[in-house]
Automatic annotation (TrEMBL), chain A:
Catalytic activity: small RNA 3'-end nucleotide + S-adenosyl-L-methionine = small RNA 3'-end 2'-O-methylnucleotide + S-adenosyl-L-homocysteine + H(+)
Origin superkingdom: Eukaryota
EC nos: 2.1.1.386
GO CC term (a single one): cytoplasm
Source organism per UniProt: Melanocharis versteri
Gene3D superfamilies in the record: Vaccinia Virus protein VP39
Cofactor(s) the record lists: Mg(2+)
GO molecular function, one term: metal ion binding
One Gene Ontology term from the biological process aspect of the record: RNA methylation
Protein name, UniProt field: Small RNA 2'-O-methyltransferase
Keywords of this entry: Magnesium, Metal-binding, Methyltransferase, RNA-binding, RNA-mediated gene silencing, S-adenosyl-L-methionine, Transferase
Family membership noted in the UniProt record: Belongs to the methyltransferase superfamily. HEN1 family.
TrEMBL record, chain B:
InterPro entries reported in the protein's UniProt record: PAZ_dom, PAZ_dom_sf, Piwi, RNaseH-like_sf, RNaseH_sf
Keyword Cytoplasm: yes
Localization per Swiss-Prot or TrEMBL: Cytoplasm
Residues covered by region (Disordered): 1-68
Stretches with biased composition (Low complexity): 41-53
Record's keyword terms, sorted: Cytoplasm, Developmental protein, Differentiation, Endonuclease, Hydrolase, Magnesium, Meiosis, Metal-binding, Methylation, Nuclease, RNA-binding, RNA-mediated gene silencing, Translation regulation
Family to which this protein belongs: Belongs to the argonaute family. Piwi subfamily.
GO terms under biological process: germ cell development; meiotic cell cycle; regulation of translation; regulatory ncRNA-mediated gene silencing
Keyword Cell cycle: no
An example molecular function term from Gene Ontology annotations: endonuclease activity
Annotated PANTHER family: EUKARYOTIC TRANSLATION INITIATION FACTOR 2C
Source organism (scientific name): Melanocharis versteri
GO cellular component, as recorded: cytoplasm
Protein name: Piwi-like protein 1
């Protein structure tokens, strides 16, 4: 290669979007494709990959591991639930945990994951750690998929300001052959298949150099034989948990109940309000009162298609307004939350005032609007 | 209620911040560009500074309150982006959310030093003693405590703040685990061995860097910088306790109170501020409630649509939503809705920093994996304020992804909703202190928090401060030759005044009663009741001109135009609904074009037989005041005194006007008031208008009294946090100027008192082993006041439930030579003089009158009312 040509290139090569983002995007695409429920990021550093992944709706368990606790703590609060997560709990459950520890040690908290990512991790490992690494990740954790990315040293001459390695903490940087041979050996040993790819395309005419970041995607060949495999491994916890956030979720009975009660009462209030304002408008004139029923139609725009059956009509009796639970249950949002009518009844029991037979939500209207 | 309008008028607390590292803000060009997308022919204007942004992805950049002046000047050296606090707190930054902020606690303003007569003492003496506790807690530091301030220099120069801290913290063995660093200034709890320390680090790229750490300051515990520092540390502690920051305060998300009837959720949280008080540095902590809505802005829009229909939909949305604060689904920021862009939708695009265009739909999908389901919704616009540099821009928000916080005015006027809320938010004294105790308990029990405090050498006294206050005696109420006391426990004399003639009853010889056909019966009932209640008040009332109108605004206006004569005393309108436009039109016409006092009442208010007599009594009194009558008085011992009240109203929805209401007493008994108001558009200074008001007020006073007042008291309400300095340096000199301009030999004694209703302090009386609200007339002028001010608190009103809030009075200018006790007494007397309430109110009557005036003008009239009305309380 002509030196001048090469020098010229060092000025030009700049990745857009930046390479780290491309690596994260690669992981995100993988998550979209395989829809793993449990994902662990080894060497999670400042948690930025984890932060991106928390928005992926398929993930229910997210774990990070790093040898340096302070770098994790620096931004770990970004992994906490937001106020809105409490206000509108999501359907899925999500738990995010950060562990302080080494990939050279086994800890049972890392078992049972679907996807383990090691983005720009292995080149930071000392030789002794690197030796233990495959046994820990592939042998012990044994997730369905492992993603490993590492710098491609063949690309280094194209980057400006790279002296020996891209980062002073790198213990080595492999060329394509070195990485692939290590990966193939590892895959063979632990019964995984591996495919190679990367991010950061080489300039045209220099494709031989390969991607700037080389990536190996390992897929376990045979499904896990079950719990027995894991229970055989007597390990004790060696990692220290530095952070744990459990996101509010409708899977949690407490949040589901709150959401249902809130939705039931709100719906009932709307129906009551409509009913009362119609009554006020038409007064006690029975002829005009009969117009009350068709009005349900325009109302159902808001509540979705309501099946208006005879026994589902809300009614007033004395100082009380009754809104049948069946009507409320037919509202799509309530329906979706509860699933079954029985569940609805169970969730609101004791929390919402019901008629004596428990079939309708009851409001007392005696004292309303008094001081308005 | 007064505070609300003002609060909403404030600039938004958070300016949307800088993008986090690695995520350049996606910038939209000028609004022109936004539109340019739809009209490509429009030329782009590169110089324009308006930018539209999508909110930055990373969550908050937390921090404490606004900087002190002194602190800021220190830090300005290199635009700091944040000060990091160490030992497990690296994520915490000393830079406040939203960047620079004015001096929130008005710390640097020392007004007392200029007032010689209160140098020695600013305390009063009258009244009986009362044992009080408060919500203040002493902050203690170990003996010889100091904060060490270092300057940190890099050679070669390093730009990135993160890199600077990373390089510095490679040397934790030297500087210790406890530190606060903003990129150039380092605070340590201990002194380094040498005055100058040189350290060597290496960057990722293998570059060697020399770091020079130089001691620049040893700060004593009471220095302003330290105070600032304590506040930041304390807020960090709240964060360590897993409380969520919303706006200014921290809230506990894990135990919300849900109010499903109104789809509301209430989070319990705390406000905190650490300040130098009279003798000690103390933490003032209070329970705070955050009302959140369990629905998105889009949900709200949908329900508005179903309520008002297509025609009024956009207007209603603007009225309901603009000015509200929203939270987003994807980051931990709050934004204020400043506008709604109906021409845009999620498919609309914006320009990213790299120049490429992207739609909102794409952006949120890519950035947060969020699918926007409704592609037809409009886009909310939030203005960014005080961005670094000169760039002013706005953020586009998608309604579906935003949750509302707080209450709208409409919700506040919903009696049932407020009642349901009050159950959870109005905590009685005992419970309030208990909740506060829980916070302190968390702090005390949490190991990490305690460790952090220990590392800095700080601790709190977990028992709240107790001291003695005074309860000044109740006032005697005078009404036409009779005099009576009121029950001090209730601070109300409704019963006592019944059947007693008014000081000055204005006859109703000629008046109009306007009603719709439906309300014919109501009108008659009212009339009969008025005839029953007015004689004992001494009001002579003729039969009104009864006029039936159609229930349309134009119909009302036509009647007014045709039937109001110069002899008309007052116009009474019975309205059938609380539709604001009708009310506004009537008020506008009768306050400007045709200056006649008017009384509007909702038919519903008059429709209950059991309350009609009470209602009629109140209405009769109110009408009498509007026509220039006087109800009662208290003894005002000062002679030739003019009392002025000023308050402001900020219109957030239309036109963004601000209105200053100005009232000034006209007579010795302080029973008649002159009023004017200043309508000013955005950016205009209020002061010039107020100067003119003062001039006319003096002219009127001299007309009434045949001389000029020898004493003037100004009660200035509507002063926001951090505006004290402006008031002292700008407004007070203008008052003095104005007085000078009256005549060379005229030099009255002037006292200017800043009135503040929204204060963090709460007082509890220790009665019978329990905590109660202190009785009206409780004055506090020690311990929790500020040493650099001539200030005091008065609890003047009573509350039925919850905790009574004291009002803070800060005398910023005083040549009266009066003893503090007399100023306190006068202030308390004036709280008795508000004619719309036969009881003691929270602020001096002139402030409340000024508020009423500003509110009426701001809400309904939008320009200065006719001067013909200026000697009457027509705005009640």
């Amino acid at each position: 290669m002509d030196t001048n040509f090469q020098e010229e290139f060092t000025q030009i090569i700049k990745f857009e979007p930046p390479l780290y983002k491309q690596r994260y995007q690669f992981v995100k695409d993988l998550v979209e494709k395989y829809k793993p429920k449990k994902v662990a990021d080894l060497g999670c550093a400042d948690c930025s990959l984890l932060w991106m992944l928390k928005f992926c709706s398929c993930i229910e368990v997210l774990a990070g591991l790093d040898i340096c606790a302070s770098v994790m703590k620096e931004k770990m609060h970004t992994l906490s639930p937001l106020p809105v997560d409490y206000l509108q709990p999501s359907e899925r459950s999500l738990t995010v945990t950060l562990h302080h520890g080494s990939v050279a040690h086994k800890d049972p908290c890392m078992l049972g994951f679907d996807l383990v990512t090691c983005i720009e991790l292995i080149e930071h490992l000392e030789e002794s750690e690197l030796k233990k690494f495959p046994e820990v990740v592939f042998g012990f954790m044994a997730p369905s998929i492992v993603v490993i990315s590492t710098p491609n040293s063949e690309f280094n001459p194209l980057l400006s300001r790279v002296m020996l390695y891209r980062h002073p903490d790198h213990k080595f940087e492999w060329n394509q052959a070195q990485f692939q041979s290590w990966a193939l050996d590892t895959a063979r040993c632990y019964d995984y298949s591996v495919e190679f790819t990367g991010v950061g395309h080489p300039p045209t005419g220099m494709e031989k150099v390969g991607f700037c970041t080389q990536i190996g995607v390992f897929v376990r060949k045979y499904p896990q034989t079950g719990e027995s495999v894991q229970s055989e491994k007597p390990t004790e916890a060696v990692y220290k948990t530095v952070f744990k956030a459990v996101y509010p979720s409708l899977k949690d009975e407490k949040y589901l109940q709150n959401a249902v009660i809130s939705e039931v009462i709100f719906t009932a209030q709307i129906i009551k309000h409509r009913l009362m304002s119609k009554r006020e408008e038409y007064g006690d004139d029975p002829e005009r009162r009969s117009k009350l029923q068709p009005s349900m139609d325009c109302f159902s725009d808001y509540l979705g298609k309501l099946v208006v059956e005879k026994n589902m009509e809300p009614f007033v009796s004395g100082n009380e307004v009754y809104i049948p639970l069946a009507t409320i249950f037919s509202v799509p949002k309530v329906n979706r939350l509860c699933g079954t009518f029985e569940k609805l009844c169970k969730l609101i029991a004791g929390k919402v005032t019901l008629s004596s037979d428990g079939s309708a939500v009851m409001f007392n209207i005696e004292h309303e609007n008094e001081e308005n | 209620m007064t505070g609300r309008a003002r609060a909403r008028g404030r600039p938004p607390r958070q300016a949307p911040a800088l993008a986090a590292v690695g995520d350049a803000p996606v910038q939209q060009g000028v609004p022109g560009q936004l539109r340019g997308r739809r009209h490509p022919q429009q030329p782009q204007q590169p110089q324009q500074l308006q930018q539209l942004h999508v909110p930055p992805p990373q969550s908050e950049e937390p921090g404490g309150h606004g900087r002190l002046r002194g602190f800021e000047s220190v830090l300005q050296e290199r635009r700091p982006e944040g000060l990091q606090v160490s030992s497990g707190l690296q994520d915490l930054s000393l830079r406040d959310r939203g960047g620079r902020r004015r001096d929130f606690h008005d710390i640097g303003v020392n007004t007392r030093q200029a007032m010689v007569h209160v140098q020695e003492s600013k305390t009063g003496f009258s009244g009986r003693m009362i044992k009080l506790t408060t919500n203040h807690f002493r902050l203690t530091s170990r003996p010889q405590w100091a904060l060490y301030q270092y300057h940190v220099g890099y050679s070669p120069e390093m730009e990135a703040r993160r890199l600077r801290s990373a390089l510095l913290f490679q040397h934790e063995e030297h500087i210790g685990k406890t530190h606060a660093f903003d990129g150039s200034i380092l605070f340590l709890p201990k002194k380094l061995e040498n005055k100058v320390t040189e350290l060597f680090s290496r960057t990722r790229n293998g570059e060697d860097v020399k770091i020079t750490v130089t001691l620049t300051n040893e700060l004593p515990p009471t220095s302003p910088t330290c105070l600032q520092f304590y506040n930041i540390i304390f807020r960090r502690l709240l964060k360590m306790l897993n409380l969520q920051q919303i706006g200014h305060n921290y809230y506990n998300p894990s135990d919300p109170v849900s109010i499903p009837n109104h789809r509301l959720m209430v989070w319990l949280g705390f406000t905190s501020s650490i300040l130098q008080y009279e003798e000690n540095i103390m933490l003032c902590a209070d329970v705070s409630h955050k009302v959140l809505r369990g629905e998105t802005v889009l949900d709200t829009m949908h329900s508005l649509h179903s309520q008002v229909g297509e025609e009024r939909f956009r207007d209603t949305c603007a009225k309901e939503l603009i000015g509200l604060i929203v939270l987003t689904k994807y980051n931990n920021r709050t934004y204020r809705i400043d506008d709604i862009d109906w021409d845009n939708n999620p498919k609309g695009t914006f320009r990213k920093s790299d120049g490429s265009e992207m739609s909102f739909v794409e952006y949120y999908k890519k950035q947060y994996n969020i699918e926007i389901s409704d592609w037809m919704q409009p886009v909310l616009i939030s203005q960014m304020k005080r961005r670094r540099g000169n760039i002013q821009g706005s953020v586009a928000l998608i309604p579906e992804l935003c949750s509302l916080t707080g209450l709208t005015d409409k919700m506040r006027s919903d009696f049932n909703m407020m009642k349901d809320l009050a159950i959870h938010t109005r905590l009685p004294p005992e419970q309030r202190q208990r909740e506060l105790g829980r916070l302190l308990n968390y702090i005390q029990k949490d190991d990490n928090v305690q460790k952090e405090l220990r590392n800095w050498g700080l601790s709190f006294d977990y028992k709240s401060v107790s001291f003695t206050g005074r309860v000044v005696q109740g006032e005697k109420i005078f009404q036409s030759g009779t005099m009576f006391d009121y029950n001090p426990q209730f601070a109300d004399w409704t019963k006592e005044t019944r059947g007693v003639p008014l000081i000055r009853a204005v006859p109703m010889d000629s008046w109009l009663l306007i009603y719709t056909r439906r309300n014919y019966d109501v009108a008659n009932t009212l009339l009969q009741s008025l005839f029953k209640v007015t004689p004992s008040m001494g009001i002579r009332m003729n039969k009104p001109n009864m006029i039936e109108v159609d229930d349309r605004t134009e119909a009302y206006l036509r009647v007014l135009q045709q039937r109001v004569t110069p002899d008309t005393n007052i116009v009474f309108c019975i309205l059938s609904s609380s539709r604001k436009d009708k009310y506004d039109a009537i008020k506008k016409y009768l306050c400007t074009d045709c200056p006649i006092p008017s009384q509007c009442v909702l038919a519903r208010t008059l429709s209950k037989p059991q309350t009609i007599m009470t209602v009629a009594t109140k209405i009769a009194l109110q009408m009498n005041c509007k026509m220039g009558g006087e109800l009662w008085s208290v003894e005002i011992p000062l002679k030739q005194v003019m009392i002025v009240g000023i308050d402001c109203y900020h219109d957030t929805v239309s036109g963004r006007q601000s209105i200053a209401g100005f009232v000034a007493s006209l007579n010795q008994t302080v029973t008649r008031w002159f009023s004017r108001c200043v309508v000013q558009s955005r950016g205009q200074e209020l002061v010039d208008g107020i100067k003119a008001c003062l001039q006319t007020a003096l002219r009127n006073w001299s007309k009434w009294n045949k001389c000029l007042p020898s004493r003037i008291f100004v009660y200035r309400d509507g002063v926001g946090d951090g505006q004290l300095n402006t008031l002292v340096n700008y407004e007070v000199p203008q008052f003095l100027d104005c007085l000078k301009s009256i005549g060379t030999d005229y030099s009255p004694r002037l006292t200017v008192i800043v009135v503040k209703k929204r204060v963090g302090a709460r007082f509890f009386a220790e009665i019978g082993g329990g905590l109660r609200n202190p009785p009206p007339g409780t004055v506090v002028d020690t311990v929790v006041t500020r040493p650099e001010w001539y200030d005091f608190f008065i609890v003047s009103q009573t509350v039925k439930n919850g905790c009574v809030a004291p009002t803070h009075y800060n005398v910023i200018y005083d040549t009266s030579q009066l003893k503090p006790d007399h100023v306190q007494r006068l202030t308390y007397k004036l709280c008795h003089m508000y004619y719309n309430w036969s009881g003691i109110i929270r602020v001096p009557a002139p402030c409340q009158y000024a508020h009423k005036l500003a509110f009426l003008v701001g809400q309904s009239i939008h320009r200065e009312p006719n001067m013909m009305l200026s000697d009457r309380l027509y705005y009640l």
